[in-house]
Amino acid sequence: MIVRGIRHLMRAWRGGELGLLGFSLALAVAIVTGIAGFSDRLSRNMEQQSHHFLAADRVLKTARTVPDEWIAEAKKRDLRTAVVASFRSMVYAGDAMQLASIKAVTDGYPLIGELGVSDVLFGMPQARTTGPQPGEMWLDSRLYALLNLQIGDTAAVGDKEFTAGRALISEPDQGGMNDMLAPRGMINYADLAATDVVQPGSLVTYRYLFAGTEQQLESYEVWLRPRLEDGQRWQGVRDGQPAMATTIKRAEGYLLLAASLGVALAGAAIALAARRYGERNTDNVAIMKALGASRKQVLIHYGTQLGLLCIGAIVVGGMGGQGLQWALFTSLKELLTVDVPGASWRPFMVGAVTAFGCTAVFAMPPVFRLSKVSPMRVLRRAGDDESAGLLVSALTGIGGIGLLMWWYSEDLLLSSAVLAAALVIGVLASVLVLYLISFARRVLINRSGSALRLALAAMYRRRFGNAFQVASFALSLMALTCLGLLRTSLLEDWQLQLPTDAPNHFLINIQPSEITPLSSFFDEHKLKDAGLFPMVRGRLTHIDQQKVSEIKDVDAESGSINRELNLSWAKDLPDDNQLLSGLWWSEIESENTDKIPVSIESELAEKLHIKLGTELEFNIGGQLLSAKVTSIRSLDWASMRPNFYFIFPPSTLDNYAGSYITSFYLPADQKALLGELLRQFPTFTLIEIDAVIQQMTLVVGQVSSAIGLVLILVVFCALLVGIANVQASLDSRLQENAILRTLGASKKLMISGLMIEFAAVGLLAGLLAAAGSNVALLGLQYWVLDMDVVFHGMVFIIAPLIGVVTMCLLAWISCRKLVNKPPLVVLRQTL
Amino acid sequence: MIRVNNLCKTVVTGGQQLDILKGISFEIKAGESVAIVGASGAGKSTLLGLLAGLDNASSGEIYLHDENISLMNEDERASLRARHVGFVFQSFQLLPGLTALENVMLPLELAGHRSPAAAAQVFLDKVGLKDRGAHYPRVLSGGEQQRVALARAFAVEPDILFADEPTGNLDEHTGQRIVDLLFELNSQSKTTLVLVTHEAGLAHRCERILVMHDGQLSEEPVSASTTL
User: Quick one: which of A379, A831, A282 has its CA closest to B87?
Assistant: First the structure.
C-alpha cells in the first residue's frame, strides 16, 4: 500500500496540486523546528549566562559552615562544588589600612564563568578560571589606590601576610550590592584559618557553589531540602539576580510568543493550500467515484498521499530548521559569549507533531469533504454544498491552532491571548469585509470607471474568499505588527532603563561635610550625578509588635529581613517612584499621628504582608525606632539610581548616624579619575556598577538580535500565507480573465482591476491588523510581559501601507502570468 | 440487466419544485444497446446519473444486475459500479495529473486488478494509442482524449457501459471514428450499452431508442425518423 501510495503521491506531485501544500508544510516544519530549536538553545544559553551571575548552577547561602556530609553527598552525585566565604575585614599595607570585603575562595571557584584580572590597575581584564593561589591576594584596583600599594607588594589580613598578586577587575558573581559596599580582596580559602579573623560570632556569609546536570542538581536538592535550617537559602539561577531573572523571563515569553504566532501563520497557509488541493481534486474524486471508488478508498487514497507528504515535509523541513538554527546562531556569534548548547531532540519532535497536527487539522478536512463529493458531478457540475463543511473545518482549524499553540508554548494564558485576538480579528474582518463589499458594490458600481467596477465585481464574486483573505492577511500583519511593536517596546523599555549615560558608579558613606567638596569635584570633571540621598543603615525587627524572626508565614526567602537595610528620608516622592496607595507626607501632616510615618516599597510590602497602617520597628545601630506605614510605593530597581525600601519624612532620622549616597556616570576612558576621587575622599565607599551594566546590556543585545531574526521568519510565514491566498483564487481568476479578454477587455484594464482589488484587501487587512495588534499588545504587556501599557498610533499608518504594498507586489508576482496567458489556452484547458 | 420502476426525480431550485423525471419505467436486457434521446433539459443526463447510481432518486426503483440500487448506500453503489459499470463522458473526464496509461489504470486499480499497467496497455493498444501512454491529457487532441476514455471504460470489462454524449465535444469526423470504436469494442465485449445523445445518427446505431420528453419516456422504433 505504501508503494502504491508513493506512486500516487508522485503522480499527484507531477500534477502540480500538492506542491504548495507540501511547501507550506515543509516551511511550517522548518520554521517551527527552527524557532523551537533556536529559542530552546538560546534560552539554555541565556540560562547558562545567568549561571555566571551565581558562578554556579545552584548556591547554598548560609551564615555557618555546613556539615562535611553535605558536600560529600554532593560529590557522590558527581556535582562539582566550591566554597566562598565573604566577610568584612581590614586590609593592612605598611601604615595604611582600609576596610575591605574579603572573599576566600576554594580552588574550584568559579564553577561557571570567569574572573577578570589584570597586571595593571584599572586595566583591561584577562580571563581566569581559578582564584588566587595560597599566599596570594588579588585586590580591587581601588584598594591598591587606597592602600597606596603596587602590584607585587605585601598586604595583610588579620595575622596572615599576602602577596598582592593582581588587580581584580571583575567577578562573575559580583552582582550583590552588599558585596560592593567595600572594595574587594580575594584570597584562597586555604589561607582563611591562618588569618584568624573568622571567629565564632563573626559576620561571615558562606556560599556553597554546586554545578552539574539538572538531574544531579534536582536529586541533590531533594536530598538537601529537608536538612536546611532557618536562614539557609538554596538559590537557583532565577533567585540569584532579580533583574536578570526578569530579563530572561521576558525573553522566554517573547520567543514563545513568536513561536506561537509562527504556528498560527503556518496553520493558515496550510489550511489555504489544502483547501485548494481539495478543490482541485473534487472533479478527480467524482470521476474516481463514478468509476466505482468507495468513500473509504477515496479517504485511503488521499490520506496516504497526505501522510507521505507529511513525512517528506518533516524530513525536508527538519533539515531546513537545522539550517535556520545554524544561520541564526552564526549571526549571533559575536553576542554569545558562552558556547551555544547542542541541539536537543525536542525541536524535532515539536516539528513532527506540528506537521502531523497541521495535516490532521488543516489538510484532512478538505479530504473528508472530498470523500463526500457526489459522483453526479461528472455529469453535472452543480454544487456540492460546501458551506456546512467549511464551518466544521474552520472550527477544527481554530481548535487545532489553539492546541498546537498551547502545547508549543506550554502557556495557556499566552496562547489563549494570541488565539482570542486572532479569532476576534478574523470574525471582525469577515463581517466588515462582507458588509463593505456589498456596500461598495451598491453605491459605487454605477459611478466608477471600468477598472474599479471590474475590481468591485471580482471582489463581490469572491466575497467570502476575500473575507477569508483579509482575515488571514490581517492576522499575519497583526503578527508582524505585534512583533514589531513588542520589539520596539522591549528595546525602548530597556533603553529607557539603561540610557547610555545611566549611572555606573555608586558612592556611599558621604558625610554631610563632604557634600560641597564632592559637588565641586563633579563640576570640575564635568561628571553628572543622580542627586544625593540621605541614608541610615538599620534592621527591621518587628512587624505589628511581632518579632520578624518569629513570623512563620513571612516569605523566608526575602533577604531584606535578614540584613541591614538602607533607610532614607525625603521631602518629596523620588522622581522614578510611584505612589500606589496611601498618602505622602504633605497630605498627612495635618493628621495627629503618634507614630513616625514611613513609606514602603510595594514588592517588599507584599512579601512581608505589610499593609497601610502596619506598625514597624527598626533597630538602627542599637537604637529603636517605631513607625507606621502610611504609603506604598513602586520603584524601578533597574534605573541605576539610589533606591530605598523604606523612606521616612525629613528630620525623623536626625538622631541616628547617617550618611549620603549618590550615583554618577563615568565614561570608560575616565576610569583613572576614580583613583583621584578616592585619594581626595578616602572614607567614601565606591561601587562600580558598569561591569554589571555591561552584562545586562549584553543580554538585552542578545534578546533584541534574536527578536530581529525571529521577525524575519515571521515575515516569511506571512508571505507564505499571502501566496497561498492568491493561489487559492488563481484557477477561477484564470478562467474569468480569459473570458474577459475574449470579450475584449484590455490588459491594462485587467491589471488595474487586479491591483485595486488586492490593494483594497491589503488596506483593510492593515487597518484591522493595526487595531488588533494594539488590543493584543495591551493584553500581552499587561498580563504576560509585565510591562507598562502603551498605545501605538503610528501602526494605523504603517500597517495599512505594508498591507497595500505587499498585496500589490504579491498580486503582480503571482497574477502577472494570469493576465499574460493567452485566453484561448486557458479556455481550451478548462473546457 | 437494467430494470426501472416508476422512477421520479424532483429537485428544488430557487424555492420552486421541479419534476425532472415523472414516473419512468423500462427494462434493458443484457447485451442490448440503447440510446436515450431528447431535447436539452429533458432529463437525459439525470436519468443516466440515476441508472449509474451516481445520484439518488426521489422515488421508484432501479435494478442493476438484479440488485436494487435504490436501497443501497453510496459506497455500495460505488462498489457495484467498480465491478459492473463503465463510463464515457462528453467532456472525457480524464484526470489531468495522470498520464494516458495511468488514467486507464485507475479503474483497474480501484477494482483490485493484479497487473493494472499491463491490462491498461492492452486497451490503449486497442484504441490505437499504443505509443501515447506516457502523455498527459493536455497534450492529447480531443479525439485522442476520448479514445483514452474509451480504453478506460472498457479496461475493466464492464457488464454495462454508460455513455453521456460521447461525441458531443468532437468534430463530426473524429466523432464518427470514436463511435465506430465504441461499437466495435462493445460488440467484442458483449457489453450492455446505454448512451445519451442528441445525434440521430448515433442513436440509430443502437438497437433501441428511448425518447425523453418532459420527464416522460417513450420508446421509438429504430427505423422511424427522429426529430431532435
Answer: A379
CA–CA dist A110, A575 (Å, integer): 39
Give the model confidence (pLDDT) of A145-202 as tens digits.
Answer: 888 888 899 999 888 899 998 999 888 776 544 454 567 899 999 999 888 877 665 5
Q: Which B-chain residues 15-54 have CB contacts (< 8 A) with chain A?
A: 45-46, 48-49, 52-54
Q: CB contact, 8 Å: A824 with chain B?
A: no
Instruction: State the pLDDT at residue A177.
Output: 44
What integer is the mean pLDDT of A69-96?
A: 88
Distance from CA of A430 to the nearest CA of B (A): 26
Q: Which three cell numbers stand for residue B213?
A: 420528453
pLDDT digits (tens, 9 = 90+) for A639-665: 667 788 889 888 888 777 778 888 888
Distances (CA, A) of A61 to A173, A223, A352, A375, A541: 13, 16, 44, 77, 21
Q: In terms of Cα–Cα distance, which of A231, A215, A192, A237 is closest to A52?
A: A237
Looking at the fold, whether A269 and A385 belong to one and the same domain comes out as yes
- Confirm or reject contact between B72 and chain A (CB < 8 A): no
Among A346-355, A384-393, A409-418, where is mean pLDDT lowest?
A384-393
Is A824 in contact with A739 (CB distance < 8 Å)? Answer: no
Asked whether residue A417 is assigned to any structural domain, the reply reads no
The pLDDT value recorded for residue A178 is 46
How confident is the model at residue B225, as a pLDDT? 44
Q: Of A11, A17, A292, which is closest to B110 when you measure between CB atoms?
A: A292
Tell me if chain B has a CB within 8 Å of the CB of A11.
yes
pLDDT value of position A252: 58
The total domain count for chain A is: 4
From B59's Cα to the closest Cα of chain A, the distance in A is: 17
Name the B residues in 156-195 with CB < 8 Å from any A CB.
Answer: 156, 164, 169
Rounded to whole angstroms, the Cα distance separating A585 from A600 reads 13
pLDDT-based confidence at A831, cuts 50/70/90?
A: very low
A708 pLDDT tier (thresholds 50, 70, 90): low
Chain A interface mutation, best of B18, B95, B156, highest count of A Cβ atoms under 10 Å? B95
The pLDDT assigned to B226 comes to 43
Residues A464, A340 within the same domain: no
Across the interface, of A290, A293, A831, the residue whose CB is closest to B87 is A290
| Pair (A405, A452) in one structural domain | no
Residue of A nearest to B161 (CA): A291
Quickly list H helices, chain B: 44-51, 74-84, 100-110, 116-126, 142-155, 172-189, 200-203
For the complex shown, is ipTM > 0.85?
no
Taking all residues of chain A, what is their mean pLDDT, rounded to a whole number? Answer: 77
| Chain B residues within an 8 Å CB radius of A291 | 81-82, 87, 106-107, 110, 152, 156
By Cβ distance, the residue of A15, A284, A289 closest to B78 is A289
List the single residue in A with minimal CA-CA distance to B156: A291
Mean pLDDT of chain B: 86
A692: amino acid identity, one letter: V
- Looking at the structure, tell me whether residues A495 and A537 fall in a common domain: no
Give the cell for residue A825: 489556452
Residues A257-285: pLDDT tens digits? 666 677 777 777 788 788 878 887 888 88
Chain-chain contact of A291 with B107 (C-beta, under 8 angstroms):
yes
Q: Note whether residue A416 is domain-resident.
A: no
pLDDT per residue as tens digits for the range A211-230? 998 889 889 999 998 888 76
Q: Could you give the residue ranges of the DSSP H alpha helices within A445-502? A: 450-461, 463-497
Q: Both A628 and A609 in a single domain?
A: yes
Could you tell me the residue range of the domain that residue A75 belongs to? Answer: 58-235
Which one of B11, B13, B98 would you mutate to disrupt binding with A, by most A Cβ within 10 Å of its Cβ? B98
Task: Tell me which chain A residue has its CA closest to the CA of residue B137.
Answer: A829
CATH of the domain spanning B2-220, picked from 3.30.360.10, 3.30.2380.10, 3.90.220.20, 3.40.50.300: 3.40.50.300
Cα distance between residue B48 and residue B24, in whole Å: 12
